[in-house]
Amino acid sequence: IPSMETDSFYQTLHARRTRRKFSEAETSLDSISRLLHTTWGVQGYVESKYFGSLPLKTSPSAGARNPIEVYLMALRVKGLDAGLYHYDAKDHVLERISCEATPQLARAYCADQPFVAYSSALFIMTGVFARTMWKYPHPRAYRVVLLDAGHLGQTFCLTATRMGLAPFSTAALKDSLIEEDLGIDGISESVLYVTGVGMPARG
Fold this sequence. Notes:
By secondary structure, the protein is of the alpha+beta class. The chain is about 35% helix and about 30% strand. The longest helix has 22 residues, at about 140-160.
């Protein structure tokens, strides 16, 4: 279809690729902020008769329960100290958890995949299961939490691609190591998925 060739959405969709090579340039804090807000941030609210004010995001979430939290590991972000941060989606702010953030630790988090050490930042998604299971009190609720994480992962990759960044995602993780550093128990809140980004390598 000729019109698809010039439509920016389709251009972005077809340009999306997993990247595992990055330049040495830092990613700007503004870019990280835009990625966080566009992917995980609250875009507005809708009033529900039975459930009150429900947050609206750019990705679908079963029952509007939004069980996914995201934590940022900043490695090479210009304007932001290296460290682990929790992203407050409601107020669009970062809350520092730890100053411990090194390329070696990022690699360890991602099952020793070497390319991760050269990225600018990791976005660690966790699931808070009670948010979804409160409304859907049956085992299949676990499935929709995983689907929510997948939706967010795709939104992240498309947004990063549109911004000219180099995104990747991985489920090869050292769960217990990550959860210990985040201060979560791995039961009521558990790590599910990691996306990351860097500046594109030349060529």
